[in-house]
Amino acid sequence: MDSDSDRSDSHSVYTDDEEDIYDYKPGGYHPVHIGDVLHDNRYKILLKLGWGHFSTVWLAYDAKTEAHVAVKIVKSSRRFSQGAQEEISLLDKICQSNPDAPGYQHVAQLLDHFEHEGVNGTHVCMVFEALGESLLSLIKRFDYKGVPAPIVKKIASQILLGLDYLHRECGIIHTDIKPENVLVYVPNMDTILQDQFGIVHGQRINDEPQPEPTTDTPPPCPSEPSSEPTQPLTKAQKKRMKKKLKKLRQKEKDILERNGIRKNRHDLIISSVLDFTDGHNDTQAFENIVVKIADLGNACWIQDENSHLIQTREYRSPEVIIGGVWNEKTDLWSLACMVFELLTGDFLFDPRATQKYTKDDDHIAQMLELMGEKLPNRLTQKCVFSEEFFDDKGRLKHIKNLRFKNLHDVLQDTYQQDDDISLLAEFMSPMLVLDDQCRTTAAAIMNHPWLH
């Protein structure tokens, strides 16, 4: 979980598009090459889709089903392996609960899982259906000026169906709803891979047959080291290595691109979308858009009493900030924040710290200013961090003067589309109720008139 998200990932030493080289070590990432095969030669690695703190993700060809899939290869340390097994138990529940429910198709499905022995240890691997761009990419493609309302309505409706499935059918809280974790389904993936990348049935067209690569040898160049440096590097050495790696990666990227393969996730995704929208305006092209909730790596069971820190900063609910017990309604708060971002290109809440108050202080103040309501006594007086933020009368300790501006007025100032602002505010407000006990549910809000 990103406790404070800033879009770029500072975990990467070299670029935002590459994982940390020094995490290729025992307990860390598994070194993967394009063309590697995993799990008894079933999955052939084709392209790199992305990476996170705990794993790398690869597009692969499944020789058994003759379909393209996404393979998530988790770091090998016990901590990450245990986390992966917990995620698998949640994903199994999602897969088995009620496939006939309308929300089932709006949650990314686990297809397979296995363990892989590599030079850095035993890695849990999860296989998912291959999906397209994230909603963050969609926001960027519309230049942060807002995704057209008809598209957002379809997206919000489908996410609500997916959340209702997770909450009611599976008893699961996602805990990290945000644009990066909702992916667009691409129905013509095979066609796109053939047209844009020359890939057919896991093989690049016009490629000469290559010797079958092994999956347990160290990578051939320093861009993917398989072990830790023997001695600590000086600052100057690190700087030189960084420059060298940058040149190597650029050279590798140039060669790959000349041959029709791109390693960066968004290159694949943007190519697929351009193909999808060719000859149509944006609204027409997305009339049949299908989205799926992805990344259950931080999900929890509803039946557990949870109060630990969750959610990415901009989508975090008040009860989480204050250290209260939270439930599935925290996902609805995040969804409302995401709907605003999709429509406007801006964050609904974007707190800043000063010398006088913390980012959390400002975040709570922004919530109070927007919703114009008081937090309940159980949140201002009885939570883990209540005393940090509130006095005994429930007033903020560090920010005295609030500037109230309701949701309708904020939308009027920032929302540039020809749409019913009052109806939109009515849709969003029940998801942004400060008292989570009074906040709406996915089932209760999914038929709201604004969506239809």
Automatic annotation (TrEMBL):
Protein name in UniProt: non-specific serine/threonine protein kinase
Family to which the UniProt record says this protein belongs: Belongs to the protein kinase superfamily.
Annotated keywords: ATP-binding, Kinase, Nucleotide-binding, Serine/threonine-protein kinase, Transferase
Gene Ontology BP, a term: regulation of mRNA processing
Record region (Disordered): 204-236
Name of the top EC class for this enzyme: transferase
Record-level Gene Ontology MF annotations: ATP binding; protein serine/threonine kinase activity
Family matches, as PROSITE patterns: PROTEIN_KINASE_ATP, PROTEIN_KINASE_DOM, PROTEIN_KINASE_ST
Binding annotation for ATP: 72
Keyword hit for Transmembrane helix: no
Record SMART domains: S_TKc
Keyword Coiled coil: no
Known catalytic reactions: L-seryl-[protein] + ATP = O-phospho-L-seryl-[protein] + ADP + H(+); L-threonyl-[protein] + ATP = O-phospho-L-threonyl-[protein] + ADP + H(+)
Enzyme Commission (EC) number: 2.7.11.1
UniProt domain Protein kinase: residue ranges: 43-451
Signal peptide extent: none
